[in-house]
Amino acid sequence: MTEAAAAANEEKREEKEADHHPYYRPKDAATLILVDRAGPIPRVLVGRRHDKVVFMPGKFVFPGGRVDRADHRVPVAAPIPKELEANLLKGSPKITASRAKSLAIAAIREACEETGLCLGRKTDSSAGLDGPWAPFAQAGLLPDPSGLFLIARAITPPGRVRRFDTRFFTADASAITHRVEGVVHADAELVELVWVELGSKPLADLHPMTKNVLGELERRLATGPLHHDAPVPFFHFYGGKMQKDVLGA
């Protein structure tokens, strides 16, 4: 089956699901795409999900998940950039600045939880961090969202049992300051991590929406260093069809 045919089948499956489930309000979520630009072709970090998980078993994914209620209260090494906050505040429904912070912090937390890679900065005030933030405290770090960029926003189609309003962030691999060993293993949610070049085979098997977002990232990387004033696409569904708008347009 060709890549285009696979994507078409996935979209048809999603439309069929939409006919069989009631409306669920999407939950805020965040995804982090880490990029290594040291070589001639940028590489992104993907993890392969366990074959026995319910959602996308065996698929390559980017780390991410739902926003936690406490994310906005986590102390940070530096505030999120004002330009990033402005991008997160665009669109509907309107959110607060604390919610914008939660989205950025959730991306960092999920990346550390799922891959063991932590984006932080050395500090003397990390002792109070616990729970999923314990690795930061143990390494003397506070999460650092200052190097994040918003690449896209996407909402799962109506009718799905699991619906997410996901903000896709990216950060350079140089922002990784600590690695927790043993997070990825044969019985974990992610069984392996792979740095793959853009355009390589593992990326062809991503969820169609994730590939849309990755295409946006690839186009932005091709123009040079990332910046916050680039248009941010918003993927959503209306009348059973995917729509692509620009946040704030």
CATH topology: Nucleoside Triphosphate Pyrophosphohydrolase
* Low confidence ranges: 1-19
Q: Give the ordered list of helices and strands.
A: HEEEEHHEHEEEEEHHEE
Query: Describe the biggest sheet?
Result: 9 strands, mixed
**CATH level-four homologous superfamily name:** Nucleoside Triphosphate Pyrophosphohydrolase
Helix-strand category: alpha+beta
**CATH architectural category:** Alpha-Beta Complex
How would you describe the overall organization of this protein?
The chain has 249 residues and is α+β, with helices and mostly antiparallel strands. It has a single domain (3-223, 234-239), classed as Alpha-Beta Complex (Nucleoside Triphosphate Pyrophosphohydrolase). Helix content is 27%, strand content 29%. The strands form two sheets. Strands 1, 2, 3, 4, 7, 8, 10, 11 and 12 form a nine-stranded mixed β-sheet that branches.
What's the topology here?
Elements: H1 3-17, E1 27-36, E2 43-49, E3 60-61, E4 64-66, H2 82-89, H3 97-115, E5 117-122, H4 134-138, E6 141-143, E7 149-155, E8 164-172, E9 176-179, E10 190-197, H5 201-204, H6 208-222, E11 233-238, E12 241-246
Parallel strand pairs: 1-8, 7-11
Antiparallel strand pairs: 1-2, 1-4, 2-3, 2-10, 5-6, 5-9, 7-8, 11-12
